[in-house]
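Changelog note: in this version the structure field was regenerated for every chain. One regenerated record is shown below for reference.
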Amino acid sequence: MQKEIEWLLREKHQNKATENFYKDMKRLKTGEPVDYVIGFTEFLGCKIDLSKKPLIPRPETEFWVKQSIQNILTNSSLSVCCSCGDNKGMRVLDIFAGSGCIGIAVLKHLEKFLPASRQAQVFFADKDKKCLKQIKINLKLNNFFKKIIYHKISTRKNCSIKYRVAQSDVFSNVKNKYDYIFANPPYIPTSAGWRNKNKIQKSVLKYEPKLALFGGADGLFYIRKFLSQAQKYLNPGAQIFMEFDPPQKKQVEKLFKKFDYKKWEFHKDQYNKYRWVAVENR
């Protein structure tokens, strides 16, 4: 708690113990997550506002997203043309987008490292209207301005990067095919798996959005729904990067086989637990 209080004092109150600081201390003591009390968090060099109370970005997610972005930027196809082979350029989908932290980190890195003459589009999809508002706040906060759905953000000569935000229940409002899909679906079990809740911090269950946490009785409802449809939205050679709960690894692999995926590789997080998987469309 002392560490969180020091962080709160430094980050939100500029080391001044004002009346509002003591009010925020009370919020901390009731169990409210420090990221909500401060109002923002950092994610791969991006400032992520949390005013609409989306799921708080986790260090485990930051770890695999960083590795996945590095994978994209070192992909040889970036130096020539996108895998889809049309003039739309590389397409990236951030599905179950929440705060938008993943897609915004992708935008930041593409804007900085994408070779000249390349084009890219990043599409944010989430079914929660509050999350759509949160994504737009965070786009503006990270210097992706203008209140329009579809916007060019790069000013570099011969380089065009665009984004789009839309409400979608998994793929219900997703169009086109993509070269990379980032997915962090809800995956905590709800029925027989409710005992797993004992492993979850009480503050998470009390304050964070249940819509972003729980994935049905076995925790695989959204993962199953996502994987059953995802191949229709992939270009040849495209990749999916997806997070899951470590105990679900075997069940996720069974789903790959059930839905006729051909190539996938599981990866561990910084805590040596299997946390994410890279899938290639062949």
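Spot check on this record: Confidence is low (pLDDT under 50) at residues 78-86. The first helix runs from residue 2 to 11.
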